[in-house]
Sequence to fold (668 residues):
Amino acid sequence: MERVYYGGDYYPEHWPDGIWEDDRKLMAEAAVSLVTVGIFSWAQVEPRPGEFDFGKVDQTLDNLAEAGIRACLATMTASPPPWLSHQHPEILPVRADGTRLSAGARQQFCPSSPVFRRYAARLVDRVATRYADHPALELWHIGNEFGCHIRECYCEASAVDFRRWLAERYGTIDALNAAWSTTFWSQRYSGFAEIEPPRVAPTFPNPAHKLDFHRFSSDASLGAYLNEREILARITPDVPVTTNFVGLVQKSLDWHKWVQHEDIVSLDSYPDPYDARSHLEAAFGYDLVRSLKGGQPWLLMEQATSAVNWRTRNSPKPPGTMRLGSWQAVARGADSVLFFQWRQTPGGAEKFHSAMVPHGGADTRIFREVRELGQELASAPQIAGSRVQADVAILHDWNSWWALELNSHPSDDLTQLDAHLAHYAPFFDANITCDVVHPSHDLSGYRLVVVPNLYLMDRAVAANLRSYVEGGGHLAVSFFSGIADENDRVYEGGYPAPLRDLLGLRVDEFWPLPEGGSTTMHLDGTRAGASVWSEWIESEGADIVATFAEGPLAGRPAVTRNEFGSGVAWYLGTRPDPTVMRTLFDRITAEADVSPVLPGLPDGVQAVVRRGGTDYLFLLNHNSVPVTVSLPSPGTDVLTDPAPPSSEVDLAPYGVAVLSGQFGKDAR
Fold:
């Protein structure tokens, strides 16, 4: 990319034809360089089965090309037209309780439906053939937010597809019975034809059945995506392809599998302005999508200029915070800043969702901030293509997430996202950059690897962790990890069986805390708070760093450290309070020789470096008050008029600075 792209979703079909001249003027003022076109255009371009009218799309792309604006062209399949579900109601998705959902919103299709896939393929073939050589075409956008509303479908087409998927996975029904532990509750199957999706049942469903249905559902949506991807690859093999993932709350899709079929990873990000720490969760999501393709720059496909429409209460973004959040994404590897949407629509379900051009038009606070940000991004094209490096890896796996949050576990309070953020926060606050990688990833390049939770852990992953520590790595593992194999069968021989020698301990019993409960530990001569969980731990060689201070576990290990091979493995048998977690990880990072991007920064100031031919240091002030940052070496702010390099930077409230220079190399 020649610059950081700027723009958003463009829906000219919502407006009279004469609106383009005003759009052209305002897009030029805001330095818009890329817009997404056609996401919800199926009903416009195919108003009746087999009758196509591309006139509006033709004119839109021609206008963009004339203005020098590139198009991320959608395949238009995200929302089927009413005639399709009217003629083929069998494409509509079904809930676990048997309720068939209706048309009238969006994503009203079963991803396994052969009828939906056939009609979608016909449309995509027409779109790709028509616009393959259009000068505005920059990349393809397949569907939109797969798995956002339809995470799983339980219809008969899904049941047939699920049985096919199971037969491919297991080969024989005996292998499935063994993996699913079907001897329990007399659930043994005599053939794949007997298996249904895990619809509503009298009590707890088979957890392995549920886990495989999560896997299947992700693959079913991926199959719908690939149905379109294969057509684009045949007609336009040189045009890159993406689809937009939905924030970090998207539990439904295994992104690690999906990105194997994407040229560029895209993310929609909507942190809540009411949450003073929402930028923490956003940063974790950015680190995750950046890591999915080994640090390749990614696209921020959607965000809001101000308020959204879909929360119970929708706060606007205070002045300056839209700019701050946009630069935060760029700092963590984004090569685009795009919004939903260009113009705020006057009707429909998202009419109160903010836009680059609000209902009030150009003479508004929002558009002034949009214009200023666009011009600012355009002034720093050299940032595009540079990369973020990290010394710390946090491990994340969708299979383990799905399994962790099934029922019949020791505590419903243990959730994957909370575990991730509790362990990510100390690094974020210390300005230590993290990658977020799959547990099977090559870990040898990291100084420290953190496992907030991997309840599900196959033996290959356990071997990967052992090899990493034996080779000199530093590992920190939190509770309820390494408990079950890939089929959700508990390892025998004491928890966590595949990691016992690595950690130098055995967990005999889980002692989850009551709702809202807490406990305390003795750590470094002080009494420290903890929550969520506790355990009966027996040391088998590990050094005891902290002990529980109260209750039946008083005096027993709570935090341990074990030397293994040339490395060190830490274990947390509870969740320390945030300040205690920070203290503990400060100790662990120091021992692992992990340093912050900049030491001694004021609280609330974020520092990240992107590296290319030049280092780019991003300083972001998440405080509502100004701060001053001292630099170890002078840098030149690329967002301001030419000025002599400085060793001191003043950041306004919610202020941003991007400095070029040499800010040290992260040895990896």
